[in-house]
Amino acid sequence: MSLSSFVFLATVLSSSFALPSDLNSRQTAAAPNPNAPLPGWTFVGCFTDAVPQQRTLQEHNIVNPGMTPALCTEFCGNFSTPLNFAGTEFTDECYCDFNIQGTAVKVNDTQCNFPCGGDSTIDCGGASLISVYQNSNTGVGPIPTNKAKVGNFVFSGCFKDVVGTSQRTLIQSIPIPGVTIERCTTACGASGFTMAGLEFGQECWCGNQFNPLAGNVTAALTDCSRACEADHTELCGAANRLSVYTVPPVVSSSSAAVPHSSSSTSVAPTVSASTVAISSISAAPTSTSVKTGTTVTATASTVVIPITSILSSPIPISSIVPKLP
Q1: In what order do the strands lie in the sheet with 93-97?
Q2: What are the coiled-coil residue ranges (predicted)?
Q3: Is the model's pLDDT at 171 over the cut of 60?
Q4: Residue 54 confidence class, pLDDT cut points 50, 70, 90
Q5: How far apart are CA 272 and CA 270, in angstroms?
Q6: Which of 141, 126, 319 is nearest to 231 (CA)?
Q7: Gap between the Cα atoms of 119 and 311, Å rounded
């Protein structure tokens, strides 16, 4: 056997009869980690978590010493209405929500560096830090939003509410089953109110103005980030935050400015043959045109009225002619 043939045979044999340890290493590298997030879930970043008042994800949570992203995403995606976001935190905690709350701040991903309780090769958030994954599987609803207009009500913004005091931003609470934007605005309107506020996903408040005792109630729009419990596609404020809708004031046509014009098409009272309209008298002569063509001219000392108009009018002359200074 030639030397080249011997080398070829040795190469073939070494590849065909690999050691079990080498084969196992290659298979492990090729296989996906079963503890990684389930298919359809994507890592979106590391976020702060204001424990415990303003959780970044608030709808559901579990604690499991063997926590992994696979376990957490399975939990959050297994409800009758799958949730949009899942997050692991502090090694063994899992949280779910339809929206990332506005109190959260995205930080560098390397800050979420606590090993998962069920797999130390994967990170599960940190102390007051949460590793967040988004669900893009079929059947998952849209991220909840505000509505620009509902009936006669229009969205006005997000405002603070002082819970636990008598100085609530909107003074009237209306208990209604299954709070949504539509139901709350309808209930407030039916009770004679022009303002409706939705809070904490499940509360409806009404009023005609903000309570003056509440002080400055302006809040960032992103603060109102909690989904309505009865409609997960809508936003219903948040903890101590109101999504406010108002009925705009009606602008009366009589309050609109009327341009001065001698044309008969301008907005002016209709004058019949038996009446005469007299404009207010000023220092300078003025002229007012009416639909009958009757012209009334007035100066500071004289008033000229066609005698035919006076004779045909049942109104006494004294009530028509103003007293001159």
Answers
A1: 60-63, 93-97, 85-89, 129-135, 41-48, 106-107
A2: none
A3: yes
A4: confident
A5: 7
A6: 141
A7: 105
